[in-house]
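Morning. Coffee machine broken again, so started the prediction first thing and wrote up yesterday's gels while waiting. Chain of 23 residues, entered below exactly as on the submission form.
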Amino acid sequence: VVIFRDGTYLTLQEVFESLDLTG
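Came back before lunch.
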């Protein structure tokens, strides 16, 4: 699964990591 967000394509793992970093 790849998600397009903020002009950047993120993998599902990267999304979870970014969510964890931002709380």
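The beta strands are 2-5, 8-11. Going to sketch it on the whiteboard this afternoon.
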